[in-house]
Amino acid sequence: MNFSKKLSISLFISLLLITYVLGQQKSQEIPRFEKAECAVKIPKDENVDCGYLVVLENRQKQDSKKTIRLPIIIMKASSPNPEPDPILYTAGGPGASSLRQVNARRYIPYLKKRDYILFEQRGTKYAQLALECPEINDAYLEGVKANWDSERSVKKGMEAAKKCRDRLTEKGIDLSAYNSAESAADIEDLRKVLGYKKWNLYGVSYSTRLMLTVMRDYPEGIRSVLLDSVFPLSINYDETSVRSVYESAKKLFKTCEKDANCEKAYPNIEKTFYKLVEKANEKPFVVEVKNDKTNERYDIEIDGIDIASNLYGSLNTGYKLGSIPYQISELAKGNKAILQKMAEGKFSTSGLAWGMRYSHWCSEEMPFQSSAKIIAQSRKYKGFKGFQTQPVLQNVCKTWNVKPKEKIENKAVKSSIPTLIIAGKYDPNTPSKWGKNVSKNLPNSFFYELSDMSHAPTFGSNCAVTLADEFFDNPNQKPKSSCADKLPSIKFKID
Q1: Left, alpha or beta for 61 (phi > 0: left; psi -120 to 50: alpha)?
Q2: Cα separation of 356 and 182, whole Å?
């Protein structure tokens, strides 16, 4: 073999070795995107790319190399020449999964022109690792069957949370790493590893708080932002949550009073509600519920707090607004069918990843709140005495043991990024006034309150979707549609 041939073989082997080494280095890069099978079942004929974002679990620990994997689904635009800036969507909660949106292409007009990226937040259902707590749901169901009072429910909820915490930490999970700041860094890492110069962000409820955090920490990669049902960083949620429900109910009762048909069918509906709650607290309704799988039967109590909770759930769901006066009126008459449905509904458990929710809430929300104010507002409003939207959380945070975040996590975000803010008039979770206040710190924002909607209008309002679609096309210009000015009033159910 001549010298030149030996040299050629040697160079070829060297190149192979270099390519292999570089490939190995790239496969170990953090952050990185790994193409993979989709984490959930994909609808037939849906065009997607799937994979996982690999990031450090805790960027604040310089010596930690532990990574987590976050599922990503990129729904491809129907246009053969899509715009270069996709839309990234992630769900609220905190603790809800984002990936079920893969079944909703027909409701996502933005997909005509842009790819639509579903981002599963750290700690949620399909993330690796997921911070799920079946202990929480088990304790809740046990309480429903046994008709625990609020004191025992809180005690058992704390015990279940501690069991979950102990189990997760024994697995080596760093609970302090599951918060908005880390998730915001995940989103920015994803943008970079996918190679997008700019993209658009879309958040609903809690994930609006997350998107505001991205706007604060990583503004350079954002073209525009859609915030649906804003949860501001500066709001102390638990100090005001009962008031928000009370004010939402008050709005609905007044709308009924101004509607001739509603007022005639349900006169003095607000007073009817208060009397109903008072009566049920004095003597709860008792309804038998049968478990079809086990044939077990349970006598389930429905007290005034249950009725207030049921109102809260209905106010939170746009399509149920018109039936609320009817429901109250029928409950006051002792309608057995509605009481049965309420009793059976108490057996429904949440699909939230409770560990993720607790880690966020106990580090970014509860440290900035007053226990005295939380307790006081649960006693203040007529018809809602003893009611809390999150009765266990304040006590859970005493045992969850995560370090409080910095004060910046309780400060309003200011940004010049083009932003569309959409709110529902009757929203008891994230009142429209929150969105209005946030808009004052976003000079390039457009704010819309939809007069017939509640929480998450972009999931139930054609007008909201139209406004969003026009905004993504030209975020520097106010949407042309005047649909928000032409919305019909609530159509009340009349028996």
Answers
A1: beta
A2: 12
- DSSP state, 402? -
* Token pair in block for residue 429: 């979770």
| pLDDT of res. 20 | 42
Q: Parse the chain into domains and list their residue ranges.
A: 32-130+176-234+411-485, 132-172+236-410
Q: Which of 335, 179, 208, 307 is nearest to 249 (CA)?
A: 307
- The Cα 359–Cα 378 span in angstroms is 24
Closest C-alpha among 476, 441, 247, 439 to residue 449 = 439
Angstrom CA distances, 161 to 155, 175, 370, stand at 10, 13, 21
Q: Is 147 exposed, middle or buried (0-12, 13-18, 19+ CB in 10 A)?
A: middle
Instruction: Please state the φ and ψ torsions of residue 287, each to the nearest 5 degrees.
Output: -130, 135
DSSP state of 365: I
Q: Which of 320, 343, 356, 270 is nearest to 460 (CA)?
A: 320
pLDDT of residue 134 exceeding 70: yes
pLDDT of residue 385: 87
Residue 291 — pLDDT band, cuts 50, 70, 90? confident
pLDDT class for 10, splitting at 50, 70, 90? low
Residue 351 has pLDDT above 80, yes or no: yes
32-130+176-234+411-485 architecture in CATH?
Answer: 3-Layer(aba) Sandwich (3.40)
